[in-house]
Amino acid sequence: MYISPPLFIFVNRIASHSLFFFFSFFQTMRRHRNEVTVELRKNKRDEHLLKKRNVPQEESLEDSDVDSDFKGQNVTLDAILQNATSDNAVIQLSAVQAARKLLSSDRNPPIDDLIKSGILPILVKCLERDDNLVCTRLVVSHYAVPLFLRLLQSPHQNVCEQAVWALGNIIGDGPQCRDYVISLGVVKPLLSFINPSIPITFLRNVTWVIVNLCRNKDPPPPMETVQEILPALCVLIYHTDINILVDTVWALSYLTDGGNEQIQMVIDSGVVPFLVPLLSHQEVKVQTAALRAVGNIVTGTDEQTQVVLNCDVLSHFPNLLTHPKEKINKEAVWFLSNITAGNQQQVQAVIEAGLIPMIIHQLAKGDFGTQKEAAWAISNLTISGRKDQVEFLVEQNVIPPFCNLLSVKDSQVVQVVLDGLKNILIMAGDEASTIAEIIEECGGLEKIENLQQHENEDIYKLAFEIIDQYFSGDDIDEDPSLIPETTQGGTFNFDPASNMQTKEFNF
């Protein structure tokens, strides 16, 4: 890759003089992070990036892109400086390109004059922009990344810190920039800064860049990079600084969101036993990140899920399910919905932890997002659980709040509930009429009847099947206990005790 000598000289000159204004400016900067939101559904979560934008593939930054005001003119430094501070992205891009052209002059590029003009902080601040027009396209296309990497070797710590900050912004622009910077060898020098002598502000920046390296799963970071980063995260998870701890746990959550192979790599690193206790951390930010990380792990195989369960994870959930923040409640129920989707031993662990009544409470009283997760948790149990486990669910009075969700507008929730009800009826066997009675008494039958007119074909077919099989008068089987037995002599033997009905469930 060819690197313009004047640009190379310029960047290296940065490291040697006129740095006071530059670094004091950036010490006051704060990085911008957007909340990463994901759909909490097993294997069906959408991707949302920290920086919701992609690097353009086809557009190039040729000299023809420069604003016409700059073409064919001897642009002064004052004009460049003025336009570099413009709110208009096109004008600012033109100014940055004009500065680059000055630095590319064959004779006596005005490096010192540019530094003294005060444009340097403005140029680097372009990396903070939320659009690509000035930011990453320009930096990457003009070979600045290798120069930033070279500055990581500077003997001046403040120079290293600013290079880390700049690289973090480039990496955070998306998976293409991330993988490009990784390919140039950023990981090893970056991780070398994790040592006891590093200032806390510098270490926060390093951890933030690690988070950006772990983010994005389309594609995920290279497996070799994940292997390099995990030992560092296992060290940083012990850190007492809340910002560093939160970023470390979020990095783990991004890695565990990259499929079963990455989940296994995180498990093999040995970090899970140190991750689980953070579910009860006093800082909500830490709890939230830890809950997402362990929640992602249990979207994996039953064996991977069991690793988390073996760390006594369920003991943290009574507090999480009663947490004052609804978001915590929602993610806690989401976590449990993936446990009830596991094997029967894992379902039993949820029952023995006393969490079923709490899930049902969220099903009845939580906000809609939490109710939706609770519906999944219940429906999953009706699929994965044994007869006695489903019977326990019914005994906890799950059917009325379950049926209440049949009237919501979310078709997915309605179908999940119908599936769960049908599974319960099937599992009940001879007791299906008792379950049908409960459904009718709580108003569920009327809702199911109305769903026979639903626009969703799967829903109205499922509603029809339930009505036809369990609520059609002509098809109701006579209770075998009421049929008199025939004696050897051909007479009927009536047992009065057999006519006594019970409300107990015995699937």
In brief:
The protein has helices spanning 5-14, 20-27, 77-84, 89-103, 111-117, 119-125, 136-141, 144-151, 157-171, 175-183, 187-191, 200-214, 223-236, 242-255, 260-268, 272-275, 284-297, 302-309, 317-321, 326-339, 344-352, 356-365, 368-384, 387-395, 399-404, 411-428, 432-441, 444-450, 457-470; strands at 485-486, 492-493. With 507 residues, the chain is mostly helical.
Structure description:
The structure is a single chain. With 507 residues, the protein is mainly α. Among the domains are: 76-136; 142-300, Leucine-rich Repeat Variant (Alpha Horseshoe). The protein contains 29 helices and 2 strands. Strands 1-2 form a two-stranded antiparallel sheet. A hairpin with a 5-residue loop joins strand 1 (485-486) and strand 2 (492-493). Helix 13 runs antiparallel to helix 14 (242-255). The longest helix is centred in the C-terminal third of the chain and has 18 residues, at 411-428. The chain is elongated and about 95 Å long. The N and C termini lie far apart (72 Å). The relative contact order is 0.05. One of its GO terms (biological process) is protein import into nucleus. This is Importin subunit alpha. Keywords: Protein transport, Repeat, Transport.
Q: How do the helices and strands line up, and which of them pair or pack?
A:
Layout lengths: L4 H10 L5 H8 L49 H8 L4 H15 L7 H7 L1 H7 L10 H6 L2 H8 L5 H15 L3 H9 L3 H5 L8 H15 L8 H14 L5 H14 L4 H9 L3 H4 L8 H14 L4 H8 L7 H5 L4 H14 L4 H9 L3 H10 L2 H17 L2 H9 L3 H6 L6 H18 L3 H10 L2 H7 L6 H14 L14 E2 L5 E2 L14
Antiparallel strand pairs: 1-2
